[in-house]
Amino acid sequence: MNVSIIGGGGLVGSCAAFALQAGGIVREIALVDVNQELVEGQALDLLHGSSLTADQKIYAGGTELVKDSDVIVITAGLRRKPDESRLDLINRNVELFKNILADVKRVGTKPGAIVFVVSNPVDVLTYLAMKELGLPPQQVIGLGTVLDTTRLRSMLAARLDVPPTQVSTLILGEHGDSMVPVWSAAQVGGLPLDKFPGVNASLIAEVEKKTRGSGAEVIKKKGGAGFAVGVSIADVVHCIALDQRRILPVSSLQDGAFGLRDVCISVPTVMGRTGVMQHLEIELWPKEQLALTQSGRVLRETVDKVLG
Ligand SMILES: NC(=O)C1=CN([C@@H]2O[C@H](COP(=O)(O)OP(=O)(O)OC[C@H]3O[C@@H](n4cnc5c(N)ncnc54)[C@H](O)[C@@H]3O)[C@@H](O)[C@H]2O)C=CC1
Ligand SMILES: CC(=O)C(=O)O
């Protein structure tokens, strides 16, 4: 499995590269960035640790590297400011992103390659990538609410003092203000969350508020998210590389699940070597379904505004 990261010199791209190196599953990691000096430095720094990790090839170069990639991760783009929504970024990121897509198209991609968008606003840019690259929709995904979901699980676990891997739930919808935490599916150690000692409505509201604000909090305190988004990207890449067919809340083109159509948004998605294999529709609480419909509407309106 050969993975390239466009934007690999930046915080998100380099953290993803490090998580992929530590994971030891992919065979080649190619870093691409307009900042040549920076990306060479990142590749060199990773390479220096490679005798202690796995037998992988790690190198930097230009966009032509993507033609040999099985997964092309795009993290290039501007970061939002703490007081800016992810959707506000569209005005600043869309032209830059279109140029990157044009470069990728010019160079060409391997048959079956998966394009994996991380740059924000991720759902809108995933839709744009799908349209501009002309690839089958199952081969174009966005990180969607994978990061929000790990934030929710991790913070709920910390609040309940249980191991994070024992907490199971997910966030659907937009990676942004209209995200939808699915409390109806939340479990701890296989038990319904509301049966767990100490869990009540105010604890749930507190954890939800922290999760919704966590991206802005990290930006305010350290400039931008790195480690958590890095492991989130690696988790999705590993699921593809190993054809694990796990259910992940990635963003992809919807064709009817939950009443969502012609929009890239996160729903429970079976992911494997060929990309999106299936969207799973589960029964939600009516208020969750309503919020998901609204989230789809927000994204659809933004796509219409930006892409005409
Ligand atoms: N979807 C998600 O869950 C998350 C998304 N993000 C998004 O990821 C993006 C990157 O964030 P950071 O890494 O923190 O920013 P950064 O500024 O550290 O890195 C961006 C990199 O992109 C490079 N770049 C710019 N134009 C390029 C081009 N045309 N071709 C190749 N490389 C180019 C820059 O040189 C820079 O190295 C932002 O849009 C941010 O909002 C960040 C965190 C989470
Ligand atoms: C930047 C961003 O999207 C996040 O940290 O959630």
TrEMBL record:
Q: Which SUPFAM superfamilies match?
A: LDH C-terminal domain-like, NAD(P)-binding Rossmann-fold domains
| One Gene Ontology term from the biological process aspect of the record | lactate metabolic process
Name recorded for this polypeptide:
Malate dehydrogenase
Q: Which residues bind substrate?
A: R80, R86, N120, R151
Organism equals Gimesia benthica
Give the keywords, sorted: NAD, Oxidoreductase
Report the EC code(s) recorded for this entry: 1.1.1.37
What are the catalytic residues?
Answer: H175
Lactate/malate dehydrogenase N-terminal domain span: 1-142
Highest rank taxon of the organism: Bacteria
Family to which the UniProt record says this protein belongs = Belongs to the LDH/MDH superfamily.
Q: Which GO terms describe its molecular function?
A: L-lactate dehydrogenase (NAD+) activity; L-malate dehydrogenase (NAD+) activity
The answer to keyword Oxidoreductase applying to this record is yes
Q: Where is the Lactate/malate dehydrogenase C-terminal domain?
A: 145-306
Q: What class of enzyme is it?
A: oxidoreductase
Residues annotated as binding NAD(+) are: G7, G8, G9, G10, L11, V12, G13, D33, N93, V118, S119, N120
Residue ranges spanning the membrane: these are none
